[in-house]
Amino acid sequence: HVHQPILLLDFDGTVCLGDDPVWAYADAVAESLDRISAATLRAGLTAFLERGVGEYLDGYSAVQQLSVGVDAAVLAAAYAQSREHLAAGGLEVWAPAGLADFLDRACTDVVLATNAPRRGVVEALDRLGLTARIGRVVTDAGKPEKMPALVDSLLGTRAPHLLASVGDIWRNDLDAPHR
């Protein structure tokens, strides 16, 4: 195992594609807003997702920043509600074309690390046909702060060049492995 390469994958926006989870989050937040604020949230998220308008890390941070004045507890509850929808299979998501076949052929330890909670992630991986292809799932990963420690623990005594990380946010997924 000392010479086995490691492929470290992110979940949302990398392995699990589609805007439905972000929209489920936005809709859950919008339930706590007045009509005008909810419309502003939806318009801002649409502009970001369709045209890249706004300085947001991803759709989830767009929802948070567009929800001015919304209590953190409300945001957390809305996120949990959106993850329940994901777990129940009520949201349209898909894996990148060819990912399952690639993982079947890759001679690597495959690890998925996500800031998302376990609920929703494991169910979606199962529906996407990826559960058996991923050796370890790390949820609530605390990226980017805890990413250096995760990279160190995954590498152990392996040489750093044996780890490749794939994700959609440099700061969260790629910076620590690159360093």
Short description:
The protein is of the alpha/beta class and 179 residues long. It has helices spanning 20-30, 35-51, 59-66, 72-88, 99-105, 118-127, 147-155, 170-178; strands at 6-9, 109-113, 136-138, 163-166. Helix 4 packs parallel to helix 6.
Topology of this structure?
Layout: E1 6-9, H1 20-30, H2 35-51, H3 59-66, H4 72-88, H5 99-105, E2 109-113, H6 118-127, E3 136-138, H7 147-155, E4 163-166, H8 170-178
Parallel strand pairs: 1-2, 1-4, 2-3
Helix pairs in contact: 1-2, 1-4, 2-3, 4-6
Runs with pLDDT <50, length 5+?
none
Structural class: alpha/beta
Instruction: Give the averaged pLDDT, no decimals.
Output: 95
> What is the overall number of helices?
8
Helix residue percentage: 40-55%
What portion of residues belong to β-strands? 5-15%
Q: Please give the largest β-sheet.
A: 4 strands, parallel
Quick one: overall form? Answer: elongated
N-to-C CA distance: 23 Å
Major sheet: arrangement of strands: 3-2-1-4
Total number of strands? 4
| Alpha-carbon Rg, integer | 17 Å
Query: Quaternary status of these chains?
Result: single chain
H-E order: EHHHHHEHEHEH
